[in-house]
């Protein structure tokens, strides 16, 4: 009596698309809209940013972070998940006036300063990524610092400067998002990101 062995089917490898384009795009667009309000250029953008902060900057970017965990990218997973959570917490503060009132200028300043500290050490890690990513994190660190100082001091000019820095940050992040999606789609480096040599 012969025994017929049945081999297990080979698992089909699953290739995850690069969620970096989504994460950077969500961060860039939300930062851009808020920064238009912070500069005083488009004050009404302060109201419209809430929907973007919840759904795109928050939920979509948080999801991008989860996918980066699945890809084994510790830096991008930490960045996107954290900044997705930042936009969700921003939405919470802005839609709960009682909470924002209790926090006051010093509470908001502390909140922004804490994010500046996080972004600063992420900037150190970004040195091992590429020039575009490093530019985004360096600009964002300075943006958070300016906004924190503006909140602590109540000086509108400093907060406004933070808005202009935020616009620069958003443009750099948008470039990174465009480079990721366009280069992947075209199969070549259409938009260079300035990769660092190991």
From TrEMBL:
Keywords: Membrane, Transmembrane, Transmembrane helix. It is a multi-pass membrane protein. It is found in: Membrane. The keyword Membrane applies. GO terms for cellular component: plasma membrane. Signal peptide: none annotated. One of its GO terms (biological process) is succinate transmembrane transport. This is Acetate uptake transporter.
């Amino acid at each position: 009596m012969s025994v017929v062995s049945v081999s297990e089917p080979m698992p089909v490898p699953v290739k995850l698309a690069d969620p970096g384009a989504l994460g950077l795009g969500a961060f860039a667009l939300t930062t851009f809209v808020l920064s238009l309000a912070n500069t005083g250029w488009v004050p009404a953008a302060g109201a419209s940013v809430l929907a973007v902060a919840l759904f795109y900057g928050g939920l979509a970017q948080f999801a991008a972070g989860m996918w980066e965990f699945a890809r084994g990218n510790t830096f991008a997973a930490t960045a996107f998940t954290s900044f997705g959570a930042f936009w969700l917490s921003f939405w919470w503060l802005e839609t709960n006036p009682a909470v924002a009132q209790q926090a006051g200028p010093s509470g908001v300043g502390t909140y922004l300063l804490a994010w500046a500290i996080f972004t600063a050490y992420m900037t150190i890690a970004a040195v091992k990524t590429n020039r575009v990513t490093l530019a985004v994190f360096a600009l964002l660190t300075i943006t958070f610092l300016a906004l924190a100082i503006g909140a602590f001091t109540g000086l509108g000019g400093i907060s406004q400067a933070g808005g202009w820095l935020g616009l620069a940050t958003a443009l750099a992040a948008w470039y990174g998002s465009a480079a990721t999606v366009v280069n992947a789609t075209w199969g070549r480096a259409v938009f260079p990101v300035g990769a660092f040599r190991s």
